[in-house]
Amino acid sequence: MSPQVFLVRHGETEWSRSHRHTGRTDIPLTDTGREQAERAGRALAGLDLSLVLCSPLGRAVDTARLAGLGDAAELVDDLVEWDYGVAEGRSTADMQTEVEDWTVWTHGTGLGESADAVGERADRVIARAEAADGDVAVVAHGHMLRILTARWLGLPALHGRSFVLGTATLSRLGYEHGNRVVQVWNDDSHLRG
After folding, report:
1. Which of 46, 64, 136, 183 could form a disulfide with 172 if both were Cys (CB 3.0 to 4.6 A apart)?
2. Is residue 20 a contact partner of residue 167, using CB atoms and an 8 Å limit?
3. pLDDT tens digits for 145-189?
């Protein structure tokens, strides 16, 4: 049996709420983010996971803990968010005041990390997940998980731009007829109601 990989984006932070690029800055969850993490945990309850991989940044660690995955979570440096360089703490709109039509996907980060470098880290995480004896949960960050998904599908890292991912959403990667596929994406049903 090939593993399913459950992706959990961390809950809301002040910077995610204001659409600021949050790479290596360790911004804590808001009250809403903590509640989102608990709700994600209820949605994941009952899964038989053989491996839980988590970014070592506090917002991901707290999400894993509040979701009930903390005791099993292995902190993995490869899962830290994209190093945004000069864009750290700034929104896309703010960056566009200096560079017209700027996005992290099209213009890069300036002194930060390339999308391909994030993709290389994602490839190592995928190799760990595929070597697991069963299903895997990965708790991390928006752009990292988007790039990981692109790489799961065999696409270049920059194709992560095609996968919008909200805070505390759940996604599932798996296989169909031996091919890697996205089975569920950006599910926020546990956050409503």
Report:
1. 183
2. no
3. 999 999 999 999 999 999 999 999 999 999 999 999 999 999 999
Tell me if 10 sits within 8 A of 140, measured CB to CB: yes
Selected catalytic residue, list 12, 14, 74, 81: 81
Catalytic residue check, 98: no
Residues 44, 78: contact at Cβ < 8 Å? no
- 3-state SS, the chain, equals CCCCEEEEECCCEHHHHCCECCCCCCCCECHHHHHHHHHHHHHHCCCCEEEEEECCCHHHHHHHHHCCCCCCEEECHHHCCCCCHHHCCCEHHHHCCCCCCCCHHHHCCCCCCCHHHHHHHHHHHHHHHHCCCCEEEEEECHHHHHHHHHHHCCCCHHHHHHCCCCCCCEEEEEEECCEEEEEEEEECHHHCC
Residue closest to 169 by CA, chosen among 190, 144, 153: 190
Phi, psi (5° rounding) for residue 109?
-110, -10
Say how many CA atoms lie within 13 Å of 92 toward its Cβ. Answer: 10
**What are the φ/ψ torsions at residue 73 (nearest 5 degrees)?**
-70, 130
Six-digit token string for 117: 């470098």
| Strands 73-75 and 49-54, sheet pairing | parallel
Please identify which of the residues 10, 141, 143, 159 carries the catalytic annotation: 10
pLDDT at 1 over 80: no
